[in-house]
Amino acid sequence: MEKAFISWSGGKDCCLSAYQAKQQGIDPVYLLNMVTEDKRRSCSHGIGAEWIRQQAEAIGIPLLQFPTTSETYQTVFKNALKELHYDGISTGVFGDIDFEPHREWIEQVCKPAGITPMLPLWGRNQNEIVAEFLELGFQARVIAVRADLLGQEWLGRLVDREFLKDIANLNKGITACGEAGEFHTLVVDGPIFKKRLEISDAAAEKRGGHWFWDIKKIDPIEKPGGGTV
Q1: CATH superfamily of 2-222
Q2: Could you say which DSSP state residue 121 is in?
């Protein structure tokens, strides 16, 4: 089975991509997550790095976290891919959907490291992606929103059909997957999880132009039968 890493933010798109890669015969052996230089937060969605570690433990796939800054991000990412290639990893799985400049960036950083990028969700309809995510039994909570589009009351909401209906009714052009950064999520359960994550303490916090759901405590709940990945 071909070995791969998953470019990991903890959100719904990378989770679904990990699931789909497994269905296509790919073995996801690492989750790759970039964190701030002080190692406190994930670079992707501003969530505490410790909660990404707890999520990875609940899934059961080893997590690799690399500290970086905005100035060194690309260099650190490239070096991480080279390390993974030396470890026998030939494929990188990414959750991108339709943002062409990011796909070009992915190809640019993967090629020198000898990594083949795989984008299982690329080009698909976003409503269909979320529908599949929900049908498979994944659950995700909103952990960050753009303050110019959504208020703090959206934080912590479960991404479900009611959520999709509500954001569509706003008529602000917010996409179903939030691919333009309108909102970000943390997946707390699904077929790849051995434990369900219960967020038991969190508070709204505004940083820059975003509202963040600053998580204080997560309780892992054992699931009978475990996950599939």
Answers
A1: HUPs (3.40.50.620)
A2: T
